[in-house]
Please model this.
Amino acid sequence: MFRIGRRRKIDKLDFILAGAQKSGTTALHYFFEKHPRITMGDQQEIHFFDDDDLFSATVDYDLLHRHFRPVTRSTIAGECSPSYLYWGPAAERIWKYNAQIKLLFLLRNPVDRAFAHWNMQRFKGREPLDFFDAVKEEKSRIAGAPPREARRFAYVDRGFYVPQLERFFRFFSREQMMIIKFEKFREEQRETLDSIFSFLGVKPLPSFRRKDRNVVPYQRAMNWEERVFLYNVFADDIAKLEQLLGWDCSDWKL
Model:
């Protein structure tokens, strides 16, 4: 008979799925929840390390750990908050919490990511502006809004991946990080998932059903003028990302 070992309280997370927003994190979270040796807590996005109020005094990590039930010794614990990649202080906060933690990042073509982000805000009734107007007004909107509100409209700013990743590189070794192209995760889901589970030190899922999550209907398609404009905005950062990670991002280019 299979016996379940003594359960333990979570005192440190083993990994964090830290970004990027609208890049497949919800789908990956779904697969993590299906794994018998992974626990993801009681909600998808706990938003602990990007909550400035929690770090204004002595940090109470029990506020994070209370989201997790006691687990067996062989179970690993993770959390998914895509905004950690973007939120400036999050990298150092995570490092001070657990310098040995593993980090996962999914990165999507920043042009497509920006449009998907805008579409999500429209779908939720938070965005009165059309996409191109929102892009052109972004800097002034962000400058005049509280930080939590501002990041909702950071369609372009969230897509500059190099400075965001470099914040984490200052604190964590490359061996602690797995950075995945969203497009590869979408097209080669089985193989990509197997490599992710291997990185986390658990066996692959024995059964598998392809899944897309958090998909909302699009009000319209991005037009060519918008795509060209945004590609020109992101072109330098895409080139730097290719050098930084050794990636081929030709599928992100015009």
